[in-house]
């Protein structure tokens, strides 16, 4: 079993070939290929965490589509002053599919 831990949009994700991730927005159209930097590689019984060896590892992924995350409601309220404000936010996200770990 081969899997890798990659850095994707400020987070670390465990990926295998064929896994689908939702990460923060990546510039590019659907069908484009992106390369993710590996932090750790597990190939059967061998574990690679050396920076020089990981520089040679390529984790490629294909951009599937752009989506938006769930709506988050931000509310502020101050007692006895009549102050209240409300704001909403939806994070831009991209779905990617890992196509290869080499």
Automatic annotation (TrEMBL):
One of its GO terms (biological process) is translation. Coiled coil: none annotated. Residues 83-102 are annotated as: Disordered. One of its GO terms (cellular component) is ribonucleoprotein complex. It comes from the Bacteria. GO terms for molecular function: rRNA binding; structural constituent of ribosome. InterPro entries: bL21-like, bL21-like_sf, Ribosomal_bL21, Ribosomal_bL21_CS. Keywords: Ribonucleoprotein, Ribosomal protein, RNA-binding, rRNA-binding. Part of the 50S ribosomal subunit. Contacts protein L20. Belongs to the bacterial ribosomal protein bL21 family. This protein binds to 23S rRNA in the presence of protein L20. This is Large ribosomal subunit protein bL21. The lineage of its organism: Bacteria, Bacillati, Actinomycetota, Actinomycetes, Micrococcales.
